[in-house]
């Protein structure tokens, strides 16, 4: 148990390092495609969730959320982003729930160890949509009627545009998760000790 626990913590630490790197290196964590800025960090969280389980997935998601929250407090990347993501209910909570829900859903769907592709696709798409829906919902709820933080910005007028752009990003992000999560997770679950530990719990 000691060796298994140490190995698990080491791998989780590796996932955490990847998350932090993705958060601060745009081309790795945020892929520019035309006018869109496609997030890829959620894919790392979902992979951790389906391989390790919902609790560890929530931890990795929380690390992303905290890194994003700190980035919003300390790095001036965009005026709107720095206002919106300062709220931890928008920057942190949705990322925790990505791992929790994607990991839980995969556990429920993956009854047969030999047939994992469809559960992985579904978990990947749902995990990505959780992030999009909760972040957009948070923006609409907290900033839809204006922002007391920066009165010069009319959030009531900008919110529909923000939601449209983020929603447009959400579709390719969900598609990317539905493709990449199975491609990366399937070998880990079928051919490594991680998969055996996942299904022998």
TrEMBL record:
Family matches, as InterPro entries: ECF_trnsprt_substrate-spec
GO terms assigned for molecular function: transmembrane transporter activity
Ranges annotated as spanning the membrane: 12-31, 43-67, 79-106, 118-142
Species this chain originates from: Pediococcus parvulus
Residue runs in coiled coils: none
Keywords of this entry: Membrane, Transmembrane, Transmembrane helix
UniProt KW Amino-acid biosynthesis keyword: no
A UniProt-annotated Pfam family: ECF_trnsprt
Protein name per UniProt: ECF transporter S component
